TrEMBL record:
Binding residues for Zn(2+): 27, 207, 232, 236
This enzyme's EC code(s): 6.1.1.16
Annotated NCBIfam families: cysS (TIGR00435)
Annotated protein name in UniProt: Cysteine--tRNA ligase
Keyword Zinc: yes
Sequence motif 'KMSKS' region, location on chain: 264-268
Stretches that traverse the bilayer: none
Chain segments annotated as coiled-coil in the UniProt record: 413-440
Cofactor: Zn(2+)
Length: 465
């Protein structure tokens, strides 16, 4: 299995620290609002990567944090005349609601930064003792020039970073590139007692500390959106490796931005959508399909038209699933014969292609193509004359390949039956109202879909032909 490592700027063979296990840390949301579709792509991508590792037999320790102390949260709490903790509690609950709706599996651990304050203070204290950090009036800064390989993730040396960075002038810093790992309390802010007075952690130190505490000094994969590579992940590397003297993460994975209608998503352009808004109109399978239809390192264009296109694609696959579910009930022969065994074996080529593409840096776009090739083959070759066992195995293969992508796991049976019964009710009402044109149209539309209605003394019955 090969993954693209942002640290080395190339694809590398994935070699875990412990054979058969993956220690993976993904930067989660700052919980002051509902998450938007850009965040949603990141969560879906790394949920899929986690699922695929598990599909390939790895045990995955998957950690995704909640940043629950931050400038944005303090601002939000002040605006709503409440506490930072109440804001955090509220939006963590809302995160789970939306993530569950998107079929994002729960992490092994979802640590909150405020649960690790004592560990963060200890972390900062050790950096000060080692000479990598210094205190000024209750603030503690990390000295970037003391860490010789600062800039290795972004691929720039510290002089280039200084000239290109937008850094506010702060006379208290020894160098403009130094960053706060502990912040002195300001009026009205939540704070904790520390060796440097009342204060709170800086953003970057939170993830370093939680990853170290839960997964150890060195982890296999650290991941997040591409906007986090610098400065957040760069700073994590510096403070973590300065503390331990060990490699912090062996592989760094970053997902690309989401554009909306070919423009970068931003509040100023008013093209900012929350995941919840999209979920009101589109099913989770559709949203995940769109998010995975491009490679995770490529920018993804997002629009309602593309969502409808994704919906049509998902429905094509579910039509096949529905046909197979019906065939399981309708076919008369149970046992598979030799010819069917050979055919079933031939379907493995699609699974092999799927695995080949996913093993190549999680190429979900080409993996989806392999699923469509499988669907086409099944539609051509599996009929009412096939055996029940063959039909079940074909359906199982579709679901197996959809599972790591978090799609294609639902049954069509209840949905189809509910829809047909609803149309029959509409037809009965139309007949009662003497709207025979509408009644005939409903009957003809159902017949075109292979559904025949029979008017009997006991009521209307239907069957699939």
């Amino acid at each position: 299995m090969k993954v693209y490592n942002t640290l080395t700027k190339q694809k590398e063979e994935f070699k875990p620290l412990v054979n058969g296990e993956v220690k993976m840390y993904v930067c989660g949301p700052t919980v002051y609002n509902f998450f938007h579709i850009g965040n949603g792509r990141t969560f879906i991508v790394f949920d899929t990567i986690r699922r695929y590792f598990e599909y390939r037999g790895f045990k995955v320790d998957f950690v995704q944090n909640f940043t629950d102390i931050d400038d944005k949260m303090i601002k939000k709490a002040n605006e709503e005349n409440t506490t930072v903790k109440e804001i955090g509690d509220k939006y963590i609950k809302e995160y789970y609601k939306d993530a569950d709706a998107l079929n994002i599996e729960r992490a092994s651990v979802n640590p909150r930064a405020t649960e690790y304050i004592s560990d963060i203070i200890k972390f900062v204290k050790e950096l000060v003792n080692k000479g990598y950090a210094y205190e000024v009036n209750g603030d503690v800064y990390f000295s970037t020039k003391k860490f010789n390989s600062y800039g290795k993730l972004s691929g720039q040396n510290i002089e280039d970073l200084q000239s290109g960075a937008r850094i506010s002038i702060d006379e208290r810093k020894q160098d403009p590139m130094d960053f706060a790992i502990w912040k002195a309390q300001k009026t009205g802010e939540p704070a904790w007692k520390s060796p440097w007075g009342m204060g709170r952690p800086g953003w970057h130190i939170e993830c370093s500390c939680m990853a170290k505490k839960i997964l150890g000094d060195t982890i296999d994969i650290h991941a997040g959106g591409s906007d986090l590579a610098f400065p957040h992940h760069e700073n994590e590397i510096a403070q973590s490796e300065a503390l331990t003297g060990k490699s912090f993460s062996n592989y760094w994975l970053h997902s690309a931005f989401v554009n909306v209608n070919n423009e970068k998503m931003s509040k100023s352009l008013n093209n900012f959508f929350t995941a919840r808004e999209i979920l009101e109109k589109f099913d989770a399978d559709v949203i995940r399909f769109l998010m995975l239809s491009a490679h995770y390192r490529q920018q993804l264009n997002f629009s309602e038209d593309l969502l409808y296109s994704a919906k049509a694609s998902v429905e094509r696959i579910y039509n096949t699933i529905g046909n197979l579910e019906n065939l399981i009930v309708e076919v008369s022969r149970d046992e598979i014969n030799e010819e069917e065994k050979k055919y079933l074996e031939s379907l493995s080529k699609y699974k092999n292609k799927y695995i080949e593409k996913m093993d190549d840096d999680f190429n979900t776009a080409d993996a989806i193509t392999a699923i469509f090739d499988l669907i086409k083959d099944i539609n051509t070759n599996i009929t009412i004359n096939s055996s029940k066992e063959l039909v079940k195995e074909a359906l199982s293969l579709i679901r197996e390949l959809g599972m790591p992508l978090g799609i294609l796991q639902k049954s069509t049976k209840g949905t189809l039956e509910d829809e047909i019964e609803g149309l029959i009710e509409q037809r009965q009402k139309a007949r009662k109202d003497k709207d025979f044109a509408l009644a005939d149209k409903i009957r003809d539309d159902l017949k075109a879909r292979g559904i025949v209605l029979e008017d009997t003394p006991q009521g209307v019955r239907w069957k699939k032909i």
